[in-house]
Amino acid sequence: MNEDIEAVLRDAKNVRLPHQRGSMNPLSSLPEPKAKIKQAIKDRIRLLAGAYISLAGFVDDDDVKFAEANPKSAKTKTIYQKVLDDMETAIEEIRQFKLIE
To answer: How far apart are CA 12 and CA 10, in angstroms?
Structure first.
């Protein structure tokens, strides 16, 4: 197995890409227009941010059962308030997140 890895590494030294990473790259090497790719990436970032924030809505199973059985109790209000607070915290985390550090 080590011999296979060594063979791959040896062969990889001879591979030359048409353009180097970190340098300018030709637009023709992109599969789609640059603007379309940029928009798709932004859309996915928004989707992931929304998913991150929505995780706050997931609470302990026992708390869900309690809240459903006792919709008007003070503990249920506390459970819902914690969800809202967690969502606000997640929103603030997203705002402060440094995409590139």
So the answer is: 5
Whether residue 14 is contained in a domain is answered as: no
Q: Is residue 37 part of a domain?
A: yes
pTM of model > 0.70: no
Please give the angle made by the CA atoms of 91, 71 and 74, to the nearest 5 degrees. Answer: 75
Domains contained in the chain, number: 1
Is there a domain that residue 21 lies in? Answer: no
Q: What is the mean pLDDT of the chain?
A: 84
- Nearest partner of 24 among 12, 36, 34, judged by Cα: 34
Question: Do the beta carbons of residue 99 and residue 72 sit within 8 Å?
Answer: no
Q: Taking the mean position of all CA atoms in its chain, how far away is CA 52? A: 7
Q: What is the pLDDT of residues 31-48, one digit of tens each?
A: 888 888 888 988 999 999
Q: Which domain holds residue 44?
A: 32-101
